[in-house]
Amino acid sequence: MKKTRIAVLISGSGTNLQSVIDKTESGYLPVEIACVISDRGDAFGLERARKHNISAFTVFPAGNASREDNEEAVIEVLMRYNVELVVLAGYMRLLTSRMIGRYRNRIINIHPSLLPSFPGTDGYGDAWRYGVKVSGCTVHFVDEGCDTGPIILQGVNPVEEIDTFESFRERGLSVEHRILPEAIKLYCEGRLVVDGRKVRIRGKE
Ligand code: GRF
User: Fold this and answer.
1) Which atom of ligand 1 lies closest to the CA of 172?
2) In this structure, which topology does domain 4-201 adopt according to CATH?
3) pLDDT-based confidence at residue 120 (cuts at 50, 70, 90)
4) pTM, entire model
5) Residue 1: its pLDDT value, please?
């Protein structure tokens, strides 16, 4: 199978990036990780990428450059590396409609809650403080809203009586590390069909 060229965008530790790297190296994912882009120079994920000989860049808001200008720089890297699918794995920036339009249904994001509950930057914290009994995570296509795009996969993380916030979050991350690669694989196999708000998965009927 032809390999899909993907870019992974990060802002932090990059444990999701690591799961994508591991599942690429094991042969589970038919992808080439063309590049990793971070908006923070100190993101540990950059080191993870370099350790695996993946081109890694920092593109961040410099001086008084506009959000659009910065994103142009991101798009420039994506085009240079001939990227087909953009994976947001803990990338803490909202994309402009220009980029979303350009990569329509080719940008996916992992979010740490069962959307539409708890969108935004602190999915684990918000769900934990609210006191839900079941949480989880969501992989979705990115649209112009904040965590509102069509849902590809969700994974469940039940809250146990003995949980601390840390154990809850740790278990949630392990669910993320499973479903993000699964969603990427479905995309690469051409099995995702976006129909309005719904994403049908071919071959699962
Ligand atoms: C994950 O919880 C992801 O869902 C959220 O940011 C976190 C990134 O973690 N958007 P990591 O950098 O992949 O370890």
Assistant:
1) 2
2) Rossmann fold (3.40.50)
3) very high
4) 0.97
5) 74
Q: Ligand 1: which atom is nearest the Cα of residue 12? A: 12
Of all residues in the chain, the percent with pLDDT exceeding 70 is 98
Domain boundaries, the chain: 4-201
Active site residue 111: yes
Residue 117 CB–ligand 1 contact under 6 Å? no
Contact of 153 with 183, CB cutoff 8 Å: yes
Contact (Cβ atoms closer than 8 angstroms) between residue 172 and residue 135: yes
pLDDT score, position 69 = 85
Instruction: Give the 3-state DSSP-derived string for the chain, with helices as H, strands as E and coil as C.
Output: CCCEEEEEEECCCCHHHHHHHHHHHCCCCCEEEEEEEECCCCCHHHHHHHHCCCCEEECCCCCCCCHHHHHHHHHHHHHHCCCCEEEECCCCCCCCHHHHHHCCCCEEEEECCCCCCCCCCCHHHHHHHHCCCEEEEEEEECCCCCCCCCEEEEEEEECCCCCCHHHHHHHHHHHHHHHHHHHHHHHHCCCEEEECCEEEECCCC
Q: Is the dihedral of CA 200, 114, 60, 7 positive or negative?
A: negative
